[in-house]
Amino acid sequence: MSRAVQLDRRFVWHPFTPMADWVAGDPVVIAAGEGNYLIDEQGRRYLDGVSSLWCNLHGHRHPTIDAAVRDQLGRIAHSTFLGLTHAPGAELAERLIALAPPGLERVFYSDSGATACEIACKIAFTYWQLRGQTGRAKFLKFVNAYHGDTVGTVSLGGIDLFHAAYRPLLFETLAADSPYFYRSELATHAACGDAVLAQVERVLAQNAGQVAGIFIEPLIQGAAGIVTQPAGFLRRLREIADAHDVLLIADEVAVGFGRTGRMFACEHEGVSPDLMCLAKGISGGYLPLAATLVSGRVFEPFQAKGVTFYHGHTYTANPLGCAAGLASLRVFEEERTLENLPAKIERFTARLRGLLSHPHVGDVRGWGLFAGAELVADQATKEPFPYAKRTGAAVCLAARRHGLMIRPLGDVLVFIPPLSITTDQIDAMFDAVAAALGEVLPA
Ligand SMILES: Cc1ncc(COP(=O)(O)O)c(C=O)c1O
User: Fold this and answer.
1) Pick from 270, 430, 275: nearest CA to 353
2) Long-range CB contacts (< 8 A, 24+ apart) of 200-203?
3) Distance from residue 227's CA to the centre of ligand 1 (Å)
4) Which of 95, 163, 341, 395 has its CA 20 to 30 A from that of 2?
5) Same domain, yes or no: 212 and 106
6) 239 and 161 within one domain
């Protein structure tokens, strides 16, 4: 047993991990990365099929990003953003605003997806307070939403498995269903979306004058199990938010930075949110960095003399993270990352659909290079496997033996590779999945 494993077992507590199982297990120790591969202590290579938790964009040890971080290290690793500024933070803000949907004008930095969303929540609430609409303190969320693990974002979340235990600590929110078509009784995905939107309208009407904003993961509710929204859903939600004069808050933490085939998911629907939350891919997957982008309208009352938004973090706008973020955006241009995506997405989608030929794959869904495959005990009845069997986890473990590192969400296998994945690597990824399915769930 390596020293890292010994020390880990003795001293470390891992996120989202049943520790009794963990300490009895045999963990993989990641020693290095190279391009789209992770390399363990024994030198085994694994394709990074979930981009190191959905954040790596251009591969590991990308020369441009490595050089930018080294260059910034040669200047300064960190100085505070409270009362001071620095070039990487200011320049990245300019670039983000240039790329973001029209109307977003200001960047408030933080350091994780949860903080980006927590900040959006506080800004939206404060916006209405400053506008004199002090009764607007409620937020609408969707069933199975996930916006992070702080108490505020858990309040805005809707995944019972993660969130129910904390109910006594949480603020109240309004909820609408999510357009989870695979398990809906409605005939089409569009009808499923319509039903949810009708519910949103009802809830907003019943709470007129009390709602500050709607939190949405645009196009895909990731942690919910890759639950997709039908085309037009987000656009209609924007119209409904406008009709009820409620802010629309787009959590692009997971779907931002090219994952769905466009720089931001909102672009597919021509939607400009009032606030937009970014993290994960913002630094190319290199360093903890996040940003909450705010429209001119929302920022306006905060410009008044004497107004302060009382929120900040020690590592807000860490210069190394900002330098990595700027370099990542340069890579998008130099490597024509977005232009190269359609061919990759075509192969990825074809191979994803191919999984449906396995009798225990009930559904596949996603956008761009962001997808999931739902495993079921019975394809015809959609009966799930018993939760305790942890079938998804078993398939992912088997995939590891075939050189692919993926993590499930329950019994949904998740595929979110770096944007730099090649078509050959896409084939290798789905070959590994097919082999793993064959071993764990022989047809
Ligand atoms: C949509 C969404 N929002 C927020 C978060 C939280 O991000 P972080 O883990 O960086 O706090 C996640 C993480 O998976 C996410 O998928």
Assistant:
1) 430
2) 200/140, 200/176, 200/237, 200/240, 201/240, 201/244, 203/140, 203/174, 203/175, 203/176
3) 15
4) 395
5) yes
6) yes
Of residues 249, 241, 314, 299, the one with CA closest to residue 276: 249
CB atoms within 10 A of CB 26: 6
Please check whether residue 407 lies inside any domain of the structure: yes
The residue among 334, 364, 389 that closes a domain is 334
pLDDT tens-digit profile of 65-111?
Answer: 999 999 999 999 999 999 999 999 999 999 999 999 999 999 999 99
Q: Are residues 342 and 301 in the same domain?
A: no
Instruction: Say if ligand 1 is within 6 A of residue 217 CB.
Output: yes
- Say whether both 374 and 238 belong to one domain: no
3-class DSSP state of 433? helix
CA distances from 141 to 150, 239, 411 (A): 16, 16, 24
| Residue 439 DSSP SS3 | helix
Chain centroid, CA 354 distance in Å: 25
Residues 262-275: tens digit of each pLDDT: 999 999 999 999 99
In terms of domains, do 327 and 344 share one? no
The Cα–Cα gap between 309 and 110 comes to 14
Same domain, 188 and 172: yes
Of 316, 334, 352, which residue is a domain's last? 334
Distance CA(372)–CA(362), nearest Å, equals 11
Q: Which domain holds residue 420?
A: 3-57+337-440
Task: State if residue 223 touches ligand 1 by the CB under 6 angstroms criterion.
Answer: yes
Atom of ligand 1 nearest to the CA of 149: 11
